[in-house]
């Protein structure tokens, strides 16, 4: 019962760990996708797409990201990055078991190399993937032919990455056809080159496994012992550098090599020692090859120690994974040693028949592949000869075309020169006349420009003087009206008359100010003074300046998105826009509320202000004309009709705009935008 509870708890913990890992990967994917959406630089996008591809290896999403990365690489003509994407595509289709697609993308890598005139390490890795796919598809001769040609080319290019990939591939090809001695030579060359590259433990472990397997078959015991020791050193280094590495599985394989080695040396005690070292990692086996080789080595160990029942049980488990002549032969030997000579003889016969059948199939396939390679080479030779003849013919045709073209050009130049010479004298006189006319026109334009500048200066001077002259009597009128207002008691008719005088004086003063503002803004003589300002404080200043205009019963609201946001702006002009918009709302709102709000849109690089009221709203026929000068919503309401025009001009200087929200129907809503950076 306790055991069952322990198993359940273990499974629960394991599931939670998987779920946590899945959530982590989902969060990382979302983070990378968000960064990708904000990035336009092709190099940065490629790096992000590579990371996304690594999260979802061998999935349709991974395929989409690889293809997108290839598009980005093509934009800026990065051959190495495009070669990386082609290699990733070949690996994707290799794992999917689609040989045709692998051949297709390997051909594309070849075309790109010819176009660019160079070959990267990813190009050679793509060719290595193709050769390995052909090898496992049973096309050993074709794989060998391509791998040898590419290996020679990598040596010629002195491409270390290419030499490593193809030496490993040639080792696998020779290992598959039983040429273990040649396989070890190729793979040792790749391993020695890897020793000079730091951090490549995963690749070195892969090559070492293949070398040790061949050395054990060749009975090179000292070499295999040295390489098993090196393998275990690399396994520890890989474990320290990569958290997700399946250390237990590969460590068990290294101990299986020791077991196999000592069984061949008839050293049962040493084999048993390494069996004990391997036992704790049996639960970590997650690879069929590792399980097959480990159980095969144990079956041989049990045979050596005379434990025939255990040996037969283990070799049957090996044959359940994969039927090989070596495993069948070992079972026959176990049966023979046990005394079941009849069954052993039957199994020996099956092994011989299987080997003979495979040899015949291999011979027929090799002959077919060699014939196909010969035919292909012959066809390539014929195509090359035909191409040489075509190039020679094209060269002659091109030479003839150039001769005709040059003769035609010379004749055309001769005629053109004669026409130009005769026409030049005629144009010379006309140009002289045009020059005089141009000088006269330039003088007239200069005089007109001077007059215009003088007129503009006089207009500005006139407006400035008029402002002063009008403001002086207005200030006197307002001052004396205020004195009268103070001295007049409530209920006296004179107090009402005094208020009328003060209100109309203020309207007249606003009219003068609006005319001066629009004149200065249009002539662009008014200079904006930009500084870092607290946006909430600016808005509150505008609200304070307009609160006396708000009618009783109307609520004045303020809804900032952030109290601490700082904006680079001209405080006075920003407040002028807000005061005009709030003042307009106050004129037409008798109940409800007037709300000033702002939001920061960093994606579009602007601040969006809204002034919303619950007033009478703006009729549909007036909505497109209210921003025109002297255009008023209600002729009976006091005002100049210049406020919205001034707001629009100031907003344009802030690289924004002022618009009416036509969708809002409970009153009126104006939207004012201001750029974040000026």
Give a verbal description of the structure.
- With 678 residues, the chain is an alpha+beta fold.
- The chain has a domain at 529-675: Heat Shock Protein 90 (2-Layer Sandwich), CATH 3.30.565.10.
- The chain has helices at 2-38, 42-55, 60-75, 79-95, 99-116, 121-136, 140-157, 160-176, 180-195, 201-218, 221-241, 247-264, 268-278, 288-304, 308-321, 325-338, 341-487, 493-523, 535-546, 571-588, 643-653, and strands at residues 531-534, 554-560, 566-569, 592-601, 606-613, 658-660, 668-675.
- The strands form 2 sheets. The chain has a 5-stranded mixed β-sheet with strand order 2-4-5-7-6. A two-stranded antiparallel ribbon has the order 1-3.
- A hairpin with a 4-residue loop joins strand 4 (592-601) and strand 5 (606-613).
- 27% of the residues are buried.
Tags for this model:
678 residues; alpha+beta; Heat Shock Protein 90; two-stranded antiparallel sheet; 74% helix; 6% strand
| Count of discrete alpha- or pi-helical segments spanning 4 or more residues | 21
User: In whole angstroms, how far apart are the ends?
Assistant: 74 Å
Pattern of helices and strands? HHHHHHHHHHHHHHHHHHEHEEHEEHEE
* The named CATH superfamily of the domain at 529-675: Histidine kinase-like ATPase, C-terminal domain
Shape: elongated
Residue windows where pLDDT falls under 50 for at least 5 positions: 1-21
Average pLDDT number: 81
Structural class: alpha+beta
| CATH level 1 name of the domain at 529-675 | Alpha Beta
Kindly state the percentage of residues in helix. over 70%
Oligomer: single chain
Q: How much is the radius of gyration in Å? A: 45 Å
Signal peptide: 1-20
Keywords: Kinase, Membrane, Phosphoprotein, Signal, Transferase, Transmembrane, Transmembrane helix, Two-component regulatory system
GO molecular function, one term: phosphorelay sensor kinase activity
Transmembrane segments: 402-421
């Amino acid at each position: 019962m306790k055991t069952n509870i322990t198993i359940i708890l273990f499974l629960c913990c394991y599931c939670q760990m998987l779920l946590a890992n899945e959530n982590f990967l989902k969060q990382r994917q979302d983070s990378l996708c968000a960064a990708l959406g904000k990035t336009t630089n092709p190099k940065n996008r490629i790096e992000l797409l590579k990371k996304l591809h690594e999260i979802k290896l061998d999935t349709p999403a991974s395929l989409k990201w690889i293809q997108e990365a290839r598009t980005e690489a093509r934009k800026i003509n990065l051959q190495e990055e495009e070669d990386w994407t082609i290699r990733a595509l070949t690996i994707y289709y290799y794992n999917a078991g689609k040989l045709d697609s692998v051949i297709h993308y390997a051909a594309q890598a070849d075309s790109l190399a010819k176009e660019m005139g160079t070959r990267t390490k990813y190009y050679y890795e793509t060719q290595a993937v193709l050769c390995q796919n052909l090898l496992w598809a049973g096309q050993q001769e074709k794989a060998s032919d391509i791998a040898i040609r590419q290996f020679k080319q990598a040596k010629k290019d002195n491409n270390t990455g290419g030499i490593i990939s193809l030496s490993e591939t040639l080792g696998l090809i020779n290992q598959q056809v039983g040429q273990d001695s040649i396989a070890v030579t190729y793979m040792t060359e790749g391993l020695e080159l890897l020793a000079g590259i730091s951090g490549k433990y995963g690749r070195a472990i892969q090559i070492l496994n293949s070398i040790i397997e061949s050395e054990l078959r060749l009975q090179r015991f000292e070499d295999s012992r040295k390489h098993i020791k090196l393998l275990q050193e690399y396994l520890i280094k890989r474990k320290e550098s990569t958290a997700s590495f399946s250390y237990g599985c590969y460590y068990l394989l290294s101990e299986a090599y020791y077991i196999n080695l000592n069984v061949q040396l008839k050293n049962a005690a040493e084999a048993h020692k390494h069996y004990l070292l391997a036992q704790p990692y049996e639960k970590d086996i997650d690879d069929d090859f590792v399980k097959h080789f480990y159980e095969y080595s144990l079956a041989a160990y049990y045979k050596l120690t005379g434990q025939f029942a255990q040996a037969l049980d283990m070799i049957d488990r090996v044959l359940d994974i994969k039927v090989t002549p070596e495993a069948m032969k070992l079972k026959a030997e176990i049966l023979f040693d046990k005394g079941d000579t009849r069954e052993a003889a039957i199994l020996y016969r099956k092994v011989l028949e299987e080997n003979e059948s495979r040899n015949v199939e291999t011979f027929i396939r090799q002959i077919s592949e060699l014939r196909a390679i010969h035919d292909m080479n012959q066809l390539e030779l014929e195509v090359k000869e035909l191409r040489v003849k075509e190039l020679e013919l094209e060269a002659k045709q091109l030479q003839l075309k150039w001769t005709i073209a040059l003769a035609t050009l010379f004749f055309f130049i001769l005629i053109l020169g004669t026409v130009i010479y005769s026409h030049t004298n005629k144009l010379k006189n006309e140009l002289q006349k045009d020059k005089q006319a141009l000088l006269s026109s330039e003088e007239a334009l200069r005089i007109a420009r001077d007059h215009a500048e003088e007129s503009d200066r006089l207009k500005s001077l006139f407006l400035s003087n008029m402002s002063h002259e009008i403001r002086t009597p207005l200030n006197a009128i307002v001052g004396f009206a205020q004195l009268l207002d103070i001295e007049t008691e409530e209920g006296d008719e004179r107090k009402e008359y005094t208020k009328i005088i003060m209100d109309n004086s203020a309207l007249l003063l606003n009219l003068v100010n609006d005319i001066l503002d629009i004149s200065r803004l249009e002539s662009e003589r008014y200079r904006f003074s930009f500084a870092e300002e607290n946006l909430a404080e600016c808005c509150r200043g505008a609200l304070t300046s307009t609160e006396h205009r708000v009618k009783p019963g109307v609520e004045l609201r303020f809804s900032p998105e952030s109290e601490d946001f700082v904006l680079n702006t001209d405080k006075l002009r920003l407040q002028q826009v807000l005061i005009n918009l709030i003042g307009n709302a106050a004129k037409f709102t008798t109940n409800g509320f007037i709300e000033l709000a702002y939001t920061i849109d960093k994606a579009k690089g602007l601040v969006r202000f809204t002034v919303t009221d619950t007033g009478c709203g703006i009729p549909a026929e007036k909505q497109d004309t209210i921003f025109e000068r002297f255009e008023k919503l209600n002729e009976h309401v006091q005002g100049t009709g210049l406020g919205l025009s001034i707001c629009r001009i100031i907003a344009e200087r802030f690289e924004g705009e002022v618009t009416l929200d036509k969708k809002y129907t409970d009153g009126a809503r104006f939207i004012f935008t201001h750029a974040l950076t000026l």
